[in-house]
Design a protein that fits this description.
The chain folds into 2 domains: 63 residues; 50 residues, no CATH class. Helices cover 32% and strands 20% of the residues. It has 3 helices and 6 strands, in the order αββαββαββ. The longest helix is centred in the last third of the chain and has 19 residues. It is globular, with a radius of gyration of 17 Å. The protein starts with a helix and ends in a 9-residue tail after the last strand.
Length: 142
């Protein structure tokens, strides 16, 4: 069994990796298993890590977009222009790892064709997780 001390380094590295893709810093919402996925506003990386540590690093998430102050008439609509896309390729649709790898390469090619570049993607675990910061406004279509 691993201890929290042993997994701290990969967690910090992973958080640094994600933050390096963000155009804006903090405040930002995070959630963990301990918060029952309720989002909590944090003001810096150290505060996010404190929440992650308190949750024993289970189900830790950080919002790709900075915290938005809600205004009168908010009605739950986020009017931010997307500048960070997240692509999750998993075995839910593709049943074999070889097919998943092929799907990853096809997806990367399509992203390059449509957005003009290759995303960063995590090879640490499968399913593949792709992180795509965009440098311009991108209109998303079905």
């Amino acid at each position: 069994m691993t201890t929290s001390q042993q997994i701290t380094h990969p967690i910090v590295d992973g958080l640094d990796f994600l933050i390096s893709h963000f155009k804006d810093g903090f405040p930002r919402n995070i959630s963990t298993k301990a918060t029952k996925n309720v989002q909590i506003k944090v003001y810096n990386k150290e505060e996010a890590l404190a929440w992650f540590r308190a949750a024993d690093y289970l189900d830790c998430k950080i919002n790709a977009y900075p915290y938005i102050k809600r205004w009168k008439g908010w009605q739950g609509i986020n009017r931010q222009v997307p500048d960070f896309l997240f692509v999750d390729l998993d075995l839910g649709v593709v049943k074999e790892l070889e097919a998943l790898d092929k799907t990853l390469h096809q997806t990367l090619k399509k992203i390059n064709e449509k957005l003009g570049g290759y995303p960063t993607y995590s090879t640490m675990v499968r399913p593949w997780l792709s992180y795509i910061p965009t440098s311009r406004s991108v209109y998303l279509r079905r």
